[in-house]
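Example for tutorial group B:
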């Protein structure tokens, strides 16, 4: 996959297609402490566009427009985290959404291994490297290894969606998955409002 690195926003006029695979890299897992550093996107055409953010430089009108575009399905693995970071730092709620981790939990009930590496290995027969997962994504200059890692997190998502859609249909859970995706923005608002570790549906 080719990678194209952009500073602070997507280029004007860039068209990625009707289904865009997206991931993000941050300084950590706390959206109130750890800033958004990188967003990687692909339309499944063999090119990954990476948007690198300098601290505080989150205007990104082209990226925001795409994230909120109702005609573009945004494809994630663990969308809950990424769209919370986008809401926190870009000020936009991402929709519509498809999350491969949610689907994995709905259809792969024979395992508790729902990480992207596990999914890609089982369903696509591809071994992914996670060597750069914990590297410094806030660095001003990212290494070639970091860029390749970032691209690898989105390159398989279109094919993964196809495999998971077939499993959803087989198990009769397609509409249930859609309902989960539709609820994600509310789940993110709860996370950001302080209910991240609370199940409000519990007794």
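The residue assignment follows.
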């Amino acid at each position: 996959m080719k990678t194209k690195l952009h500073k602070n926003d997507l280029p004007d006029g860039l068209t990625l297609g009707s289904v865009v695979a997206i991931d993000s890299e941050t300084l950590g897992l706390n959206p109130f402490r750890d800033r958004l550093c990188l967003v990687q996107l692909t339309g499944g055409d063999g090119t990954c566009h990476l948007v690198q953010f300098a601290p505080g430089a989150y205007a990104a009108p082209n990226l925001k427009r795409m994230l909120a575009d109702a005609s573009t399905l945004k494809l994630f693995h663990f969308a809950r985290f990424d769209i919370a970071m986008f809401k926190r730092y870009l000020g936009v709620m991402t929709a519509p959404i498809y999350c491969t981790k949610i689907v994995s939990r709905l259809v792969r009930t024979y395992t508790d291994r729902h990480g992207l590496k596990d999914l890609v290995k089982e369903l696509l027969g591809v071994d992914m490297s996670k060597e750069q997962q914990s590297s410094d994504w806030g660095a001003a200059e990212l290494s070639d290894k970091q860029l390749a890692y970032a691209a690898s997190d989105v390159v398989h998502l279109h094919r993964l969606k196809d495999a998971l859609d077939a499993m959803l249909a087989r198990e009769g859970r397609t509409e249930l998955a859609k309902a989960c995706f539709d609820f994600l923005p509310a789940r993110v608002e709860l996370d950001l409002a302080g209910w991240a570790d609370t199940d409000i549906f519990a007794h």
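The radius of gyration is 16 Å. Compare this with the pattern of hydrophobic and polar residues in the output above.
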